[in-house]
Amino acid sequence: GAGVSQSPRYKVAKRGQDVALRCDPISGHVSLFWYQQALGQGPEFLTYFQNEAQLDKSGLPSDRFFAERPEGSVSTLKIQRTQQEDSAVYLCASSLVVGGEQFFGPGTRLTVL
Amino acid sequence: QKEVEQDPGPLSVPEGAIVSLNCTYSNSAFQYFMWYRQYSRKGPELLMYTYSSGNKEDGRFTAQVDKSSKYISLFIRDSQPSDSATYLCAMVSTIQGAQKLVFGQGTRLTINP
Fold first, then answer.
1. Of A103, B27, B44, B84, which is most buried by a Cβ count within 10 Å?
2. Per-residue confidence of chain A (113 residues) as pLDDT tens digits?
3. Conformation bin of residue B64: beta by default, left when phi > 0, alpha when psi is -120 to 50
C-alpha cells in the first residue's frame, strides 16, 4: 500500500482484556511513532522506534502498555488488562528518515467497556 | 498547564471567509512549528511547516510564527467547505534526532456553503 495502514480499525474490548494493535508503516521508513488521541484532544506521544530499537517510551501511560517492532518494519502496540481510560484512537506514524516528515495512519479506535 | 494551548472551538464560518487559527506554547526549546489537518476518522496530514519567525504562504494558507510571544497562527483565505476539518498545531521536540510532535488540542472548523 501507499500509506501507513493500521489494523483493526475498530476494537471493542471488555475491561480487563488484552488487546494488540498493528501498524504497517510505509515500506523502508526508518522511524515509527505511536500516539494516543483521546476524544476531542490532540494526539499525545507514546513511543518511538528507529528501525527495531525503541529509543523513547516516555509517553507510555503505564506498564500495561508495551510496544515492539522486532524486524524494523511492522509494529505492535499491546495493552494488557485494558481500562476504560484506555479508550482512545491510537495513531501510528512513520518517516523515511530520522527527523523527516511523519505520515500518519488512519488510527485504531479502541473502546473499552 | 499544557505545553501547547489551542482554542478547541468549534468554529463555524461562511464559505469565502478568512479563518484565523491560533496556538500558544510555553517551551522555548520548540524550534519547528507545524499545522496538521485531520478529517473525521482519518489520521492527521501535514499542511504547513516552518521553523523561523515570520510568515510562510502556500496557496490559500499562511502560517505565522512569533517566537518572542510564543504564538503561532494559521490563516485560511477564501475558505471552502472542503476545508471543514480539525486543525492541529504541533511543535517539534527532538529525541535522538527524531521529531517528537507535541500537539495542541485541535480546533474543529466548519465552513458553511
1. B44
2. 589 999 999 999 999 999 999 999 999 999 999 999 999 999 999 999 999 999 999 999 999 999 999 999 999 999 999 999 999 999 999 999 888 899 999 999 999 99
3. beta
Set of chain A residues whose Cβ sits within 8 Å of the Cβ of B46: 101-102
Neighbour tally for B67: CB within 10 Å: 16
Contact at 8 Å (CB) between A78 and A20? yes
How many CB pairs lie under 8 A apart between chains A and B?
Answer: 67
Q: Tens digits of per-residue pLDDT, B23-46? A: 999 998 888 899 999 999 999 999
Residues in Cβ contact with A45 at an 8 Å cutoff, skipping those fewer than 6 apart: A33, A34, A35, A58, A59, B100, B101, B102
Residue B105 touches partner A, C-beta closer than 8 Å:
yes
Q: Which residues from chain A sit within 8 angstroms of residue B97, using beta carbons?
A: 98-99
Instruction: Indicate yes or no: CB of A106 within 8 angstroms of CB of B46.
Output: no
Cell of A5: 495502514
